[in-house]
Queue: 3 jobs
Job 1
Amino acid sequence: MNSFVISTSSFDTGNNPAIQRLLQQGFQVITNPHKRKLTEDEIIELLSGGATGLIAGIEPLTGRVLQSAPNLKVISRCGAGMDSVDLAAAKNHGIQVLNTPEAPAQAVAELTLGYILSLLRQIGTIDRAVRNGEWPRTQGRLLAAQTVGVIGLGHIGRRVARLCQAFEATVIAHDPFATQVPGGATLVPLEQLLATADIITLHTPYSADTHHLLNAKAFAAMKPEAIVINAARGGLVDESALADALKSGKVSAAALDVFEQEPYQGALLEFSNITLTSHVGSLARESRQRMEIEAAENLVQGLIKAGLIKNG
């Protein structure tokens, strides 16, 4: 019997037409029993039944994993990032790799804007103080008065730029591969962005070239009281260097939705001037529904192309 694996921690199979189509054609679905990001060994185990398709989360789909799954023909990422997939190994094994870059973009962009507004007005800090019986008269800052530096102008970065412009902020951006720049935004070298932006937000893919893009040297180059946001990939930020920058006051506040090791248990938990969320960037109901439907449709189209199901 043909089977496919859904490795994401949650997935609504019941309201997904493409999944129902596969089930009607006799496919068996194997879901993630752990309800969290899988390890390399755990995804190998899930694929060991001979699955031909995979709707993937952010588990490591390494050469070792792909080598262990000789029947696998299609990987459909439920999301945009491809850094968790060994694309060269997939090509060598004849595995199609697809993703859903547009579906989560609005959700991540809106979360980023939420971070920016919350940190500028210190909403979380004030909330905690009020609950402790205090009544602080905390003075925040206007987004309209800030220069926002957007690193990466893909599907998400362009949206963040436009949202910030709607609040009348000045937007500068860095992306060596940018083909589209939101009207009114200015492309600048990374060094200039770090030195002039009040708020720096990351929306670039993770790779060996972007590992610890924001490191001790980058934090040292920033303006005093800079705000740093990462809702992209954990490896983009040197978390130890960020802790040092928060401690010294060089970075006044930060927000992270992604970490090098998840669930996160590191030193940043000790700081009150950082907002930490549990990789929920794409988890807006409407975006998640669209992402799951697109991922399943991609899987079906990939299986058609591989000759494993008939079109129509």
Job 2
Amino acid sequence: MKRVVAGAVGLLAGAALLVGCSDDKSAATASAGDTQANASAGDTQASAGGTTEVKVDGGDLAGLDLNSVTCVKQGGKINIGSGAIGGQQGLGIVMTDTDAPTVESLGMVVDGNALAVSNIGGMQSGSAEVKVDGDTYTITGEATGADINNPMAGMITKPFTVTVSCK
């Protein structure tokens, strides 16, 4: 049973990373720095750079290039994703684009551990809360997951804080 849960959490974290980092061909791409781009449809907003901070277990997420973190608003969703630099570290978040946004999924790789938060399909793992201050989103909570190298080691939980500008 533990193998199934650990495998499911790892799969969920990987899926969240892919969704958060996916490339929508209709969306305009954003360059580094505080930029905003609109697609021809006019309803896609993408931004990169700006204020970004990712902390896990009280420390910076080592190996994550904060300049690679992008935010895309499209179709009632906010997708935040990063590129991995120097290993497997990465981040992917999908939130609702409402006055009080909620995290639908969050996936991150931290020191070889796939960690996730999910509120999809009636299944919940981990927890996340979103606070908005203008264009700045602060997501705090606890992500759960398994060690990618040793899934039999059992479940782990780590507190996190992600602060990102999203125009």
Job 3
Amino acid sequence: MKSEVWTRLSEMRDAPALMEIDRLVWDERNTPAGRLVWNSREQFLQSCPPGSQIVAGIGGRICGYIGFKPPTPLPSNSHVLDLNIAIHPECHRMGIGRALMEALLALAAQQGVRKLSLRVLASNPGAVAFYESCGFMEQGRLVDEFFMDGQYVDDILMWRKV
């Protein structure tokens, strides 16, 4: 029996769970910034205010999120949302990522967004394959953009229409 995945906009009370997901997910293998550890709940909430993410869970547990924001404050760029997504390591292959992407597509369409964009490292082929399965295409590549773990890594820019 498959567990039911729910989604909703993030709320202030989600901060501890989302901070923990960030701590577990973001590290030297998948982001050039390295390990992400928030210094405080306030710092997290300032960077990721309630409603700036869609959270997904099973039962009472938050299993992942998809963050979204316009790439710039320019009105001429407001039809685009930049994304970042993280799934708790214990919740992979449970439909969380797909549920988050579907929820974001619905919200983006509701808000008149026309384009979704994201960046992913070429050294993360699982993420690239997931994004492609969600309809994202490569729109550019910054070759040898980062030097990580002794090798140069391309930064892939991906997009899809809403």
